[in-house]
């Protein structure tokens, strides 16, 4: 991949951003490899043109016009994060096929030689009557059905592309079905994530159902240790665990996630692999979670995982239907409503910067 890049950094408050307002830099991604603003950005309303060989004169441009750049041979993108779960967002509304391949997405996601992200998300034309279609390539080139943090970033990106203001919502077609995000007045995004799928064969898992066709607090042997797991799909598979043999409440900060996570992900009882949530119960309405994501590894947040976690907590009788879920990147508010059986996720989504790369 060529190194030359163009970067434009938005600098309004994290919850009140507009494309036309660029005043001061705040590097939101904790893993960003960008230079610090004190050394680099002299001109608050400019973009920096940089290459591996030299730094050219900054070219003035407004952020409002940046994402409308259409010159051939360049990929224009925005980088967003939802509680530190970060993504490259690409405006793909003019064609139904992603502008780059899954292999190119892997290069973009590389944190040393690329932009750095957990995945690349494409805003495609809607199908089946929806406003938009969302596709995502993970950092390992796999394509998940959808992503909870990613869909919040998708919603904020579309709001900027379409110059939408105030409270608004739209419909998104995903591999997990219809998703409806609503951008709230405070800048947070609430997403109707639909109904959790509990039937074992549909999650999917080969673990035998033990409660109304679902797998609830079932035993799973991983690396010689018996874990108690509940399996839930939020359009993508999740294995949620609150305890293991000899420990009734996990202390999630003590887990060696990089060692145990892959063993869950690739366990033979999960034919489509799985995301795994390790959860500590703080109270009836407060949970603490660490996640190993299928195709991305340890991430700072997982929206579908937080939704699956609350569903699993309710099924195991560990928590109520409305919970704050603390993730390494920050909190999400999750509600599993009895009246419609839908799970609602509310949380932040923030732009980090805009950039261009030669294709």
TrEMBL record:
GO terms for cellular component: chloroplast. Its EC number is 5.1.1.7. It is an enzyme of class 5 (isomerase). The keyword Calcium does not apply. It is found in: Plastid, Chloroplast. One of its GO terms (biological process) is lysine biosynthetic process via diaminopimelate. It catalyses: (2S,6S)-2,6-diaminopimelate = meso-2,6-diaminopimelate. Pathway: Amino-acid biosynthesis; L-lysine biosynthesis via DAP pathway; DL-2,6-diaminopimelate from LL-2,6-diaminopimelate: step 1/1. Its main location: plastid. PROSITE patterns: DAP_EPIMERASE. GO terms for molecular function: diaminopimelate epimerase activity. Keywords: Amino-acid biosynthesis, Isomerase, Lysine biosynthesis. Residues 18-39 are annotated as: Disordered. Belongs to the diaminopimelate epimerase family. This is diaminopimelate epimerase.
